[in-house]
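It would be a great kindness if you could assist me with a short task in structural biology. The matter concerns a single protein, recorded as an amino acid sequence and a row of backbone structure tokens. Could you please explain, in whatever detail you think fit, how the structure tokens follow from the sequence? Thank you for your consideration; the sequence and its tokens are set out here:
___
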Amino acid sequence: MLAKSDTKQCSACRQPLSLDAFASNRSAGDGLQAQCRECAAEGYRRRRRAAGHNVRPRVEVPEGYKRCPGCEQIKPHALWSRNRGTRDGLSSHCKACTAVRSRKLHLRKSYGLTEAELEVAVYLQGGACAICGRPAPEHVDHDHATGRVRGVLCFNCNQGLGNFRDNRETLRQAVAYLEGEVCAPDLRVLLPASFRQLS
């Protein structure tokens, strides 16, 4: 049984509750809210619904877990990024949802594309990389000078263009080299005998 000084009556549900059931309020005489946390939260949800806002149902979450508003799943703290600016020290969304949100933001800010537009672009390419034909490309290729989106590529092709710095002449030389049209020295002749033996 709690001592009288350890309890307070909630102004909404009229129940005598322990002091830790109330949020702090410095302007109140006892330094606590008049309503308990549960009643205050229910009142807030009721006002939000009355104003036409979507209100998520309250879900009990076990210790060491958190509910993600994106995927609406309850996940362990290990699946969340740290954020010192929040009350619980964790990001508002789980790592998986944060990655999806970050990709959407990147597509919009960098290329002016939505996820749906990217899917259409991949569909129009036959669901494959615009260069090598590998399935399910994910990397948006764009002209670095104009910003115009050229297509959707696999990682290797996108990286390759980046490594060649979109230089058409260097790419032509690379093709000529691969086809044997560029005269390269015979390294077996130029290398010391010790290296030739290894081959």
Observations:
- Residues 8-50 form a domain with the Wheat Germ Agglutinin (Isolectin 2); domain 1 fold (CATH 3.30.60).
- The CA atoms of residues 117 and 123 lie 10 Å apart.
- The first strand starts at residue 7 and ends at 9.
